[in-house]
Amino acid sequence: MSAVKQIEAAHARNLAVKCSRIASMPEVGIFWLIDKKLVADSIPWRQANIKGKEYTDYPRGRVLFDAMEEVFRVYSSRAIISSPALRNLILAEFKLPLAATKFAADYHYENVVASLLDEDFDA
C-alpha cells in the first residue's frame, strides 16, 4: 500500500472515530498536507496524555518500504534492533517477510525510557 493510501486510510479511520466524539473537545495528533488538503490522525487531548509522557518517551520505530531495493526497512533504537525477540515481534506485527526486511538503528529513536526495554517480549 502506498504512503498516500496509508495516510488516507488513517484519515478515514480518524473521521469515523470523530463522528462518535464530543465535537467541542480539542485534539492532538499528526497531520499531512496532500494536494492542498489537510489530512489528520488525531485523538482527544485528554486521551493522548494519560501517562503524562511525550511520544518520544517511549521506545518506537518506523517501518518503510524501499521501492528501489524492494525491501522493507525498520528503523528504531539500537536496543530494539539488537533484540531478536523484538525483531520477531515487529516482523509478525507488520507481516514483514524476513528475507526482504532490513533492520537499522537510527539516532532519531535513541531517546527512550530504558526501563521499558527490560520487559519480557516473548509472551
| Major sheet details | 3 strands, mixed
Number of domains: 2
What structural category do the secondary elements indicate?
alpha+beta
What is the overall pLDDT average?
Answer: 79
Question: What is the β-strand count?
Answer: 5
Q: What distance separates the N and C termini? A: 29 Å
Instruction: Give the ordered list of helices and strands.
Output: HEEHEEHHE
Describe how the helices and strands are arranged.
Elements: H1 3-18, E1 27-34, E2 37-44, H2 45-48, E3 61-66, E4 71-76, H3 78-81, H4 84-93, E5 101-105
Parallel strand pairs: 4-5
Antiparallel strand pairs: 1-2, 3-4
Summarize the structure.
The chain is α+β, with helices and mostly antiparallel strands. It has helices spanning 3-18, 45-48, 78-81, 84-93; strands at 27-34, 37-44, 61-66, 71-76, 101-105.
Give me some keywords for this one:
about 120 residues; alpha+beta; three-stranded mixed sheet; two-stranded antiparallel sheet; 5 strands; about 30% helix; about 25% strand
Question: What do these coordinates show?
Answer:
- This protein is of the alpha+beta class and 123 residues long.
- It has 2 domains: 3-48, no CATH class; 55-118, no CATH class.
- The protein has 4 helices and 5 strands; from the N terminus they run αββαββααβ.
- It has a 3-stranded mixed sheet.
